[in-house]
Amino acid sequence: MDNDGAAAQIRQMSETKRILIGITGASGAVFGLRLLEMLDAAADVETHLVISKAGRLTLSAELDRDAAALEALADVVHLAGNVGAPVSSGSFRLDAMIVAPCSVKTASNVAYGNTGDLITRAADVMLKERRTLVLAVRETPLHAGHLETLTKLAGLGAVIFPPVPAFYQKPQAIQEIVDHTCMRLLDQAGVHLDAAPRWGEAGGVKAIGDG
Ligand SMILES: Cc1cc2nc3c(=O)[nH]c(=O)nc-3n(C[C@H](O)[C@H](O)[C@H](O)COP(=O)(O)O)c2cc1C
Predict the structure, then answer these.
(1) pLDDT computed for residue 203 by the predictor
(2) d(CA 52, CA 75)
(3) Å from CA of 50 to ligand 1 middle
(4) Does the model's pTM come out above 0.85?
């Protein structure tokens, strides 16, 4: 085969960003839902979704929507038990993974390489490939074991992002708090949407001391 033929066989990878959303059984299924809604409206993003077994339980307890409604917002849905799905391999190009909400169980499994389901396997792949892994860990209060787990994860390169609300944008409704948190989560994944007021940005919250 000549050089031109060889070059033609090398496929150009798409510019579309691929983001994997994992939803686990921590409280806060609404964060997973809102991330999917925002990504659905975003241009040039292919969204993959995995919901854990416990995640299905909590979302039916917390939202007036079932898992199917969330899955309809994603481009590709993977079963949590399918550790052979594309996102389980480092050769599948993924730009970022956000686990929101992320349970302590999933966080500790990722910290210690227990990759028995697709969410933990895909998260482990993100770490070994040095890609962006954002964990919206939700538990309170935290004992020393939780803190050790989170410290270990931060050392491995994960972004530890507890969904702690900000109040400088003076939210009037829960949805505004959720939107602000989800916008900040997506910022971490390199998807920048003006979904909530940003500090010091035009149309956002006026920064202090800017005149
Ligand atoms: C209504 C409800 C709320 C829960 N909230 C939390 C939570 O905020 N954080 C947490 O770590 N686990 C929470 N759990 C427990 C997890 O669902 C449980 O540990 C589960 O095994 C997590 O599995 P997963 O990480 O595979 O989804 C909650 C469970 C239920 C039923």
Answers:
(1) 84
(2) 18
(3) 16
(4) yes
State the Cα angle at 18 between 137 and 36, rounded to 5°.
Answer: 55
Q: Residue 5: what pLDDT?
A: 58
pLDDT tens-digit series, residues 82-95: 999 999 999 999 99
How many angstroms separate the CA atoms of 145 and 185, rounded? 25
What per-residue confidence (pLDDT) applies to 30?
98
- The residue type found at 114 is N
Torsional sign, CA 49, 50, 55, 56: positive
Q: Which atom of ligand 1 is nearest to the CA of 62?
A: 1
**132 close to ligand 1 (CB < 6 Angstrom):** no
Instruction: List, in sequence order, every residue forming a beta bridge with 57; answer none if it has no partner.
Output: none
CA of 14 to the centre of ligand 1 (A): 36
What digits encode the pLDDT tens for the residues 134-176?
Answer: 999 999 999 999 999 999 999 999 999 999 999 999 999 999 9
- The response to whether residue 25 sits with its C-beta less than 6 Å from ligand 1 reads yes
Cis peptide before 165 (omega within 30 of 0): no
In angstroms, rounded to a whole number, what is the distance separating the alpha carbons of residues 180 and 162?
13
Domains in the chain, please, with CATH?
Answer: 15-188 (3.40.50.1950)
Task: Confirm or reject: Cβ of 55 under 6 Å from ligand 1.
Answer: yes
